[in-house]
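We modelled each protein-ligand pair independently. The example shown here corresponds to the flavin-adenine dinucleotide entry; the chain sequence is given first, followed by the ligand as SMILES.
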Amino acid sequence: MRVVCIGGGPAGLYFSILLKKQDPSHDIVVYERNRPYDTFGWGVVFSDQTLQNLAGADEPSKQDILDAFAHWDDIDVHFKGRTITSGGHGFCGIGRKRLLNILQDRARDLGVRMEFESEIEVDDLTTRFADADLIIASDGLNSKVRSRWADHFKPSIDVRKNKFVWLGTTRMFDAFTFIFKKTEHGWFQVHAYRYDREHSTFIVETREETWRAHGLDKADADETVGFCSDLFAEWLDGHPLLTNMRHLRSSQWISFPRITCETWVKDNVVLMGDAAHTAHFSIGSGTKLALEDAIALAREVEKHPGDVRAALGAYESERKIEVLKIQAAARNSTEWFENVSRYEPLEPEQFVYSMLTRSQRISHENLRLRDRSFVEGMERWFGDRAAGRPQQMPVPPMFAPFHLRGLSLANRVVVSPMATYSAVDGTPNDFHLVHYGARALGGAGLVYTEMTCVSAEGRITPGCPGMYDRAHVAAWKRVVEFVHERSEAKICLQLGHAGPKGSTKVGWEGYDVPLDAGNWPLWGPSPVAWSAENQVPRVMTAADMATVVDQHRQAVQWAVEAGFDMVELHAAHGYLLSAFLTPLTNKRTDAFGGSLENRLRFPLEVFRAMRAVWPVDRPMAVRISAHDWVAGGNTADEAVEIARAFKAAGADLIDVSAGQTSTAAKPVYGRMFQTPFADRVRNEAGIATMAVGNITDFDQVNSILAAGRADLCALARPHLADPNWTQRAAVAQGHAAQWWPKPYLAGKAQAERLTVREVPLQV
Ligand SMILES: Cc1cc2nc3c(=O)[nH]c(=O)nc-3n(C[C@H](O)[C@H](O)[C@H](O)COP(=O)(O)OP(=O)(O)OC[C@H]3O[C@@H](n4cnc5c(N)ncnc54)[C@H](O)[C@@H]3O)c2cc1C
Ligand SMILES: Cc1cc2nc3c(=O)[nH]c(=O)nc-3n(C[C@H](O)[C@H](O)[C@H](O)COP(=O)(O)O)c2cc1C
């Protein structure tokens, strides 16, 4: 085969090595525009896992790399005058130049031809290289090949908010070191690590506006180095900062481009490494991805002898998934470092925990495997604060109590509101008693009712319960009394009005589908139907609004009578108040439409009326859709403002959901996919939040809580499958103090015995 690699970075060099090893008769040439000893950057890091992958691919180069590596386990974080260390992270650092030289030597020994100082132009692909069997476009993040056929590869390039500069220093750091330093214009952070006997990498990063405010947009290399040396002098111990960018054309400070491509393959040309995809340096995975791309493609070429196109197709489908996962983790990490000011109010312990778990790939249990004492220290810290006094034992965060006004929850697991569509004329019945009773007995700290409607016309379906008739009060009281008398759980009533999404069939007959017969008229902010099938709502007048305010007020008065511990106003998912909040369905031109302030006016009026009749010592929550997932709709920016407004009106908790406000929504699903919104609302608006959405295991719950991304975690579908979710999670974690109903204690004892015998329960 005749193979051409455009670009002699890690991707091109490593692929040429692996292919030449497979079959020495391949004719492989690597074209590199730089000289062999000329490169940008300083050291790069790999995890121990990446090293293991290299061992399987090419032992000699892996050994040379290993010999040149600096290895360390600890991460040191310097924040607000404290240094906090977490161990067991297993990283290696190597000079980028050293790595390239090792790969160049190995490639040369195997007979790969390398043409340095040789810049390839895209026209060469169709002229000089027209007879090549395979062309590897390993030409880095500014890939000319990708740009030339952009209409085919369909790249998306998202230039991020921070500016960074990749410097070196002779100061030897003992650990992977993160330094956070605040100036009068904002935060700067350093990512520093040793990579050989004399040098450490020293990457300085800050928000673009902070960078401009310091005049760094006009700084040359010496001024940049001078500024950074002064700013971080106390950590440099008199050592200089070094730059190797002076002789290169590129600017000192860079904005990281997040690159994804719809496809990486065009005929016999394949994008590889940074040309195809980038992963932010803060998770140290760019070189890893480049090398692993090379391993995967070499394997597929071997599996498909004489059929390059089949090999490229198989390569792309195999690698895309792994790359997407790393890029998702890198995105979380990038955004964390772009928003350091959001986490500034956190105490150093929680700040560090939040930083370590920022990519959502490292969880609580994962951290425990790395450094048990660090995690136990965090659990103590969390438990002490939750209890308001020092605790004897570290306890997983989900079992720490939580207090809001006069309400005390035994733990932080919540049964999320879920419609059961089982009421008749709005009256809850035995099904509700058993359903909510079972979940209260199952150990969650707080059980939510499903959306309970403030009027018959405000129901979603004929099966939805209400709080608009005296009969409803008595029926709910029976449920509440059971929960209070027979369990340690508290119970929250979710109140709402369906608005434009009302008068539909029960869930299992089709979501949001109008009734076949007996539909009732709908109300909404504007004449915007949920879908072409649904009714166009009547535009609410001032009198209609006053009616809805009264209905909410009355429902809350009855909630007091029924004995509920908490009330939540449902202002999410496209129902009436949500329809006012989002510009997608609120097209009003009066004081209730237009600006966010106007769109908030009616929902706030409703909330204030409720708060006024709800006891002062009992908390109130508001559920919001923190993102519409539609261009032109609400985003997390508005969610923070909405949360601030409800907080000012007396809300104690924001229940942070997302979407379901438009049929055009394109949600980005994934594990814990709405939690970043709970994090943002909590830490920017300064109000307690509840995270919800695809939170399925206790490890996720503990990580979310310990990191301060939310104060409570709501699980919906997991509680339909298992009312005893909390008790099983307690058993799996060895948390014997979890409350169980007395009649079930024999089951608790057996479950604990089985777990000790290492038959772990799957939770
Ligand atoms: C500040 C910073 C820190 C980083 N830290 C880490 C880290 O700790 N760990 C990690 O794994 N990764 C890290 N990376 C990422 C890593 O550097 C890249 O992901 C990796 O180098 C990608 O390898 P590559 O072979 O795809 O591209 P590159 O290494 O960019 O190589 C591309 C090569 O192609 C050459 N080239 C381009 N166009 C042409 C042309 N037309 N003709 C000839 N030659 C051409 C270039 O000169 C270059 O040598 C970091 C990146 C940055 C910016
Ligand atoms: C059957 C069902 C009914 C639901 N009904 C409601 C509801 O009445 N009120 C509400 O705010 N959310 C409702 N939701 C949304 C859930 O509270 C939750 O936000 C969503 O299911 C995501 O959480 P999960 O991934 O843990 O299931 C419902 C979800 C399900 C599955």
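Residues 308-338 form the longest helix (31 residues).
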